[in-house]
Amino acid sequence: MRLSSASTLLRIGAASVIALLVGSGPAESHGRRRAPPPCTPVCHVPHGNPENAHTLCLPCGAARAHLRRHRDDTAGECPPLPPPPPEVAYSTCAPVTVATFHGDVFHGNSRLARIEEGHVPCRHVETAEAAMCVFTTGSSGDWVEAADGAYAKTGLAIAPTGEPGGEWVVAARVNADGTVPCVASVGQDTYGHVTPGEELAATCVLESMLQDFNTLSPLINFGQVSVCTSSNPHPDGAALVEGTTWCYEGPGTALNDINGTERDELETYYLDTERCHYARSGGFEVPAAKRPATRSLPAPGQVIPTSPLVWRPVNNNLHIFNTIP
Amino acid sequence: MRRPWRAAVLLACVATAAHAGGPIADRLPRIVYRGGPFLRHPRVVTVTFAGDDAALVARLERFGDVIVRTAWWRAAVEGHCAAPGDCIGDGRAGTGVRLDEPLPRAVRAVDVEALLVWHLRAGRFGPPDADGLLLVYLPAGVGLTAATGARYCDGGPRAFHAALRHGRAKVAYAVVPRCGDEAELTATASHEIVEATTNPDPSARGFALVPGSANLGFTAAGPEPVDPCGLLMMGGHRATESGFVVQRVWSNRAASLGRDPCVPSATGRPYVALVPRRPTVRLRAPGERTTVVLDAAADRPTPAWRVSTVELTGEGCVEASLDRAFVAAGETVTLTLTARAPDARRRCVVGLVSTVDGRSSLWPVAVVVR
User: Which among B108, B149, B221 is the nearest to A197, CB-wise?
Assistant: First the structure.
């Protein structure tokens, strides 16, 4: 623990006076080997380079003078350095040119899962267990035709047998170069016709499944509906509504978006990399949601308020925090 | 994994001039650099097809050759810098390529891209060029359909630009179907040249309006530098340069001076606007009503002008009215907005129209109905 400068100086000063009055240090005696002089540890913080702080061991008087000259230094050993932050990993998308969209949920940079022999990779929305789910174009959910094949939208809720709305979520297979397929953006000359003109972030952060910390920064996604959980305090600092069941609302409440992307109070997506979240395991990627556990079936499903707020696969069956899916 | 360079430069601002323009300058959004690629000195490769009108093709090739080296171009790209000294500058001399193969009467956007990739690999467009822009004019009688199923022309979009992969590089291209005469074609092409230069890969934005709810109205027609001008200028978004019709382009410099943000502006005409104190409004249920105070502002002394509203997203989303029909600079107007049908669109845009000397311009207010 670091001491304040004033109390440090007082302690060092008092120790020096006592040492002068009673003689030298405790281990000195005639005819025997002299013990090393006592020293006072000082945490030295190099000017302009605080990350290189280190402990000096100085004679008492020298320590006092040193602390006078170095206002950033403190008496005592330097506290242990915090562990280095985990290396930030990103999800970057590799656009595919879409020939035909089937469904209206696609934005530019929407992540895609390749449909291979009628199947797509999928993950259980709660356990993240891996499986291959049947995907039937025309009935399982939104998909696109591209030059090199057919793709489903990641984040769709699906059953292993291909029915929409199951307890599994469509996952993208990560390419060999670490990218995932996505919809190529196109700049339309709208010429006075009003269109959304939005696309999602091409690069998103990868979160750690079932952990409550975020890779880069606290959530600011605006929760329009309060959410109840076993987490207290809230990992992202959201406002507590009720103290008995730990319900929260407002910015940072939680996230459960099919594009893994945070929104503001007016439901506009933030387009920054740090506001877009995916999670990977076993070479597959799903939109990441920071939410309590849920039960999807029987419909309409429910939130389990006795579970913690951690990163999980998105559950597209429930509108947990935003009124708009 | 290394942190992407894009994040490090996200939202680095385009250089802007001094701020002295009152509420217009205060509340007009700005184009910012958002970290993606851009073309420094674009070279337009005009691509046409056999059998097209030879005289028109010659004019289009001439347009692609000269337009990126004109006063209009310099005004359009002024201040578009990723860093000091790293800016969009004058383009280079363009070339023309006339492809021989006939096109079917209906093509999809993906078909055009495949055709371009094939010719690119064959070296038909010359050696690889980081500043190259393939500008494709489809011949008359060839219809174009987007992947969404939307048909171009006749009330649909007029053109698009995108990027195609060529090895490890990406090549910017734009496709302009035959929606009209030469003036229509060059106006649309000018739009695409500016936007393909500032955003050659729309998946990774280069220069575009600041995103977010505060600018929903301005980005309703798209976030790239020409998009808002078609929306705001209400038919007055064209200009003439070197004998060609071009579109007007968003200027941070003009915006920061409180002037008409779309350049080149009509010389001698005042720019007037109703500027909302809330750019985006939320109405939670049908019948819910709110008011917004609007500041009337002008870039020079101007007599009172006529004001009105128009719903840009079509009828039925929101009802809008003003408490007066004429206003002078420095006065305020109250806008009343009422949500309409329960199945209304989630986002609507109301235009605040100002008309002076027979020319109208508008300022958008976004309304989120939910």
Answer: B221
Q: Of B207, B230, B251, which marks where a domain is finished?
A: B207
pLDDT at A322: 60
State whether B370 and A323 contact (CB < 8 Å): yes
Size of interface A-B (CB pairs under 8 A): 149
Range of the domain at A71: 5-25+36-75
Handedness of CA A190, A191, A195, A201 (dihedral sign): positive
**CA–CA–CA angle A102, A104, A110 (5° rounding):** 90
Sign of CA dihedral B106, B112, B114, B120: positive
Is residue A303 located within the same domain as residue A213?
A: yes
User: Inter-chain contact B368–A182, Cβ cutoff 8 Å?
Assistant: no
A43 with A62: CB under 8 angstroms?
no
User: Residue B184 pLDDT more than 70?
Assistant: yes
Q: Does the beta-carbon distance from A87 to B1 stay under 8 Å?
A: yes
| Mean pLDDT, rounded, for B84-91 | 97
Whether B157 sits inside 8 A of A190 (CB atoms) is yes
Higher pLDDT, B312 or B112: B112
Answer for the pair B195, B173: CB distance below 8 angstroms, yes or no: no
Using CB atoms, pick whichever of A144, A188, A202 lies closest to residue B204: A202
Residues of B in contact with A264 (CB under 8 A): 212-213
Q: Which portions of chain A are predicted below pLDDT 70?
A: 1-37, 82-86, 188-198, 242-244, 321-325
Angle at the Cα of B164 (from B158 to B170), degrees rounded to 5? 125
Last residue of a domain, one of B165, B187, B207: B207
Residue B53, chain A, CB below 8 Å: the answer is: no
Range of the domain at B133: 34-207
CA gap A281, A276 in Å, rounded: 17
The answer to whether B309 faces chain A, any CB pair under 8 Å, is: no
Nearest to B224 among A108, A187, A268 (CB): A187
- ipTM of the complex in this document: 0.80
pLDDT tens-place string over residues B188-217: 999 999 999 999 998 889 999 988 888 989
Would you say residue B283 has pLDDT above 80?
Answer: yes
CB contact under 8 A, B313 and A194: yes
Share of chain B above pLDDT 90, in %: 74
User: Residue A265 falls within a domain, yes or no?
Assistant: yes
